Amino acid sequence: MEHERIIQIYDYLCRYTNKNKGVTIKEIQNYLSQSGNSKNVSAITIRRDIDRLTSMGNDIQKESAAHNTSIYKLLNKGFNFNEIRFIVDSISINKFLSSSQKQSIIKKFEGMCSEEEIRQLISRISLNGRSSPSANLLENLEKVHKIISEKRKINFEYGKYDVHKDIRYYSKKREIIPCRVIYFDERFYLKCYNEETDSGRTYRIDRMKNIVAGDKVKKLPELKKYDGAVIDMFEPDYYEYVTFRLKKFLLDDMLEKFGKENTNTREDIEKSDCVMVRVKIGINGSFYRWVMKYGSNIEIISPEKVRNGFIEELKKVSDIYKK
Predict the structure, then answer these.
(1) Which of 138, 219, 221, 277 would give a disulfide with 193, using CB separation of 3.0 to 4.6 Å?
(2) Whole-number pLDDT of residue 282
(3) Crossing angle of helices 99-110 and 81-92, rounded to 10°
(4) What gap in Å lies between CA 170 and CA 203, rounded to an integer?
(5) Contact 127, 92 (CB under 8 A)
(6) Residues in a beta bridge with 63
(7) How many CB atoms are closer than 10 A to CB 283?
(8) For residue 155, which of 203, 218, 223 has the smallest C-alpha distance?
């Protein structure tokens, strides 16, 4: 009974106090009485419970108020309100969660907020109604992390869209070693190692189902580290320092994509509306497709091998449209 009462007091302080608003002992007494389980609790008992909550590390502030009374405020509730609001907004725009999943998670964060703060959360967020058409991401992530922590191999069915816009799952024995979960470009991926082929594989976690653990492994293999910037999650053929000439309005895109610390920039002495950018980057088909999307606003200057590779890709595109 005593533990339940202390939890009720903590919940009340969470919901009805913040740095600008406090509550009195009388208000706490009324709340406990209305809850039905803690009637006629003395002011001394409540003060003792507040002292216990404070000794447990909760930042409860006592201030003098009118009519010779005191008010109590619970501060620093783990996350501050701006942090909670950021997390809630991030959840609300997550494309992998259904509306009901978002509501359930957000409800838990509301428990850390006062009533006034909850109203601010509701006024700021707009729940994304789209839900992922594939497997339950949260459940898949939980299974994958557990298998990695247990140092076991993994097996699963993997899905891809067919012409009818349905995801078809393919079942085959994989028995590969899961090494690391990576978040890249708004998706979760699982990097794996195949012992038979001595190579790495990458899978989207939201496209997996019927995930089961396999045999134990003695040690998780070390995956190759990136030796430069990458366009997608798949291993590049090689890395190279590439110099681009690009229109000045694309400079923001380049610096946000590759990071200021990884890029060298300078004025283009030949074209005043352009800048020169040099970055070490992984070269593969995805790289060439990425360059293509900028059209005539970007040019690969060097090295010659990469420039010629891009020319060959452009020829393949051009051949498709030849009559």
Answers:
(1) 221
(2) 94
(3) 170
(4) 13
(5) yes
(6) 71
(7) 20
(8) 203
Cis peptide leading into residue 133 (ω within 30°): no
Instruction: Yes or no: say if 38 and 5 are a contact pair by the CB < 8 Å rule.
Output: yes
Query: What is each CA distance from 182 to 71, 153, 186, 187, 189, in whole angstroms?
Result: 47, 18, 10, 8, 5
Q: Tell me the average pLDDT across 47-67.
A: 87
- Contact, 176 vs 154, CB < 8 A? yes
Q: Kindly report the number of other CB atoms within 10 A of residue 131's CB atom.
A: 15
- pLDDT of 37 over the 80 cut: no
Q: What is the DSSP letter of 293?
A: T
* pLDDT recorded at residue 36: 66
For residues 175 and 153, the answer to whether their CB atoms sit within 8 Å is: yes
Dihedral-angle region of residue 201 (phi above 0 means left; psi in -120 to 50 means alpha; beta otherwise): beta
What are residue 201's DSSP bridge partners?
192
Q: Where are the alpha helices (DSSP H) in the chain?
A: 2-16, 25-35, 43-55, 81-92, 99-110, 115-124, 137-149, 251-258, 285-292, 304-320
Give me 28's structure tokens.
Answer: 């706490």
pLDDT of residue 312: 95
Q: Residue 82 has which token pair?
A: 């701006």
Q: What is the pLDDT of residues 197-250, one digit of tens each?
A: 888 889 999 899 999 999 998 888 887 778 888 888 888 899 999 999 999 999
Asked if residue 231 lies in contact with residue 286, where contact means CB atoms within 8 angstroms, the answer is yes
Share above pLDDT 70 across residues of the chain, in percent, rounded to a whole number: 92
Instruction: DSSP letter for 186, please.
Output: T
Residue recorded with tokens 């090689």: 238
Element (H, E) at 263: strand 263-267
For the chain, what is the total number of helices (H) and then of strands (E)? 10, 13
Q: Tell me the pTM.
A: 0.62
CA-to-CA distance for 304 and 289, rounded, in angstroms? 18
Averaged over 191-199, what is the pLDDT?
Answer: 86
